[in-house]
Amino acid sequence: MGTTTNLNLLQAFDALLQPARFKDYGPNGLQVEGKTQVRRIVSGVTASRSLIEAAIAAQADAIFVHHGLFWRGQDGCVTGWLKQRLALLLAHDINLFAYHLPLDAHPQLGNNAQLGVQLGLTAGTFFGEQGLGCLGGRTDGGSFAAACNLAQHIEKTLRRPVVQVGPAGKAIKNIAWCSGGAQGYFEAAIAAGADAFITGEISEPQAHLAREMNVVFVACGHHASERYGAPAVASHIAAQFGLDHQFIEIDNPA
C-alpha cells in the first residue's frame, strides 16, 4: 500500500476537478484537516455520521464526499449534528475532502458523466447554469418507445422506484439529465430540445410543466443519482498514489 500527504491529495483533487471554475454553495477541497500521511481513502455521497463511523471502522485516513459539512447560509455554530460529526473526524484525525458542483461536472468521472454511463447515455452538448446539464441520447443510438420504458430502465439500473410525469406515450430520443436537486434545470432542458429530463428530485411546478410542455420528467432520487461520481474520482486519485480506496454506500431513500 502506498502513502502520500493530505496536501498532495488536495492538489491532485483540485487539479482534476478545478473548483475555481465554479460558483458553489459551499467550500470545495479539504474541509477538515486530519493526519498528514494518508494510506486509505473512503468515499461516499454525504459526510453523514454513519459514513464517518464506517470510515473509522475501515481505518480510513481520509474521506472523499460530494456533500460535505459546510454550506452557505449556516449560522457558524458548531453544535448538535455538526459538532457530533466534527468530533468524530477530529478524534480520529481523519481528513475530509468535499467537492460539490466540481464533482457533478467532471466530463468523465463526475456524477453526471457516471450517471450517463450507468444508464447507457452519452452527452453531446451541455446546458443550464454553469453548463452542468447534459443533453444526448442512448449510447447505442436507439430510443425509448414510451416514457414507461425509460422509467423502467432507470428503475432497473438504479434499483429504486422513480417518479415519472408527463406524456406517457411519447417516444423519447433526446434525453437531458443532471444529477441531484436539479429540478430547476427543467425549463433549460426543454429549451435545449429534450424529450425527457432525468434528475434526482421533483418539485411541485415541474409536474405541471411536464404535462403542459409535453416533455417527460423523471425523478430518480437525489442520492441514487449521485452515488457514482465520488467513488470514480476517489478511485482514480487513489490509483495515482497507490492508496487503498473503498466506497461505502449509506442507503438513503431521498
List keywords for this structure.
elongated; 254 residues; single chain; alpha/beta; 6-stranded mixed sheet
Please sum up the structure shown.
Helices cover about 35% and strands about 20% of the residues. The protein is of the alpha/beta class and about 250 residues long.
Written account of the structure:
The chain is an alpha/beta fold. 36% of the residues lie in helices and 22% in strands. The protein contains 10 helices and 13 strands. The strands form 3 sheets. The chain has a 6-stranded mixed sheet with strand order 7-8-10-11-12-9. Strands 2-6-5-4-13 form a 5-stranded mixed sheet, with helices on both faces. Helix 2 packs parallel to helix 3 (80-91). The chain is elongated.
Write the layout of secondary structure elements.
Layout: E1 4-5, H1 6-17, E2 29-32, E3 37-38, E4 40-46, H2 49-57, E5 62-67, H3 80-91, E6 95-98, H4 101-105, H5 111-119, E7 121-127, E8 133-138, H6 147-158, E9 163-165, E10 175-177, H7 186-191, E11 196-199, H8 204-213, E12 216-219, H9 222-225, H10 229-241, E13 244-247
Parallel strand pairs: 4-5, 4-13, 5-6, 10-11, 11-12
Antiparallel strand pairs: 1-3, 2-6, 7-8, 8-10, 9-12
Helix pairs in contact: 2-3
Order of strands, main sheet, comes to: 7-8-10-11-12-9
Helical content class: 25-40%
Number of strands: 13
Major β-sheet annotation:
6 strands, mixed
- End-to-end separation in angstroms reads 36 Å
- Given as residue ranges, the uncertain stretches (5+ residues, pLDDT < 50) are none
Name the helix and strand elements from N-terminus to C-terminus, one letter apiece. Answer: EHEEEHEHEHHEEHEEHEHEHHE
Number of helices: 10
Structural class: alpha/beta
What is the C-alpha radius of gyration, as a whole number of Å?
19 Å
Determine the mean pLDDT: 97
The share of residues in extended strands comes to 15-25%
Shape estimate: elongated
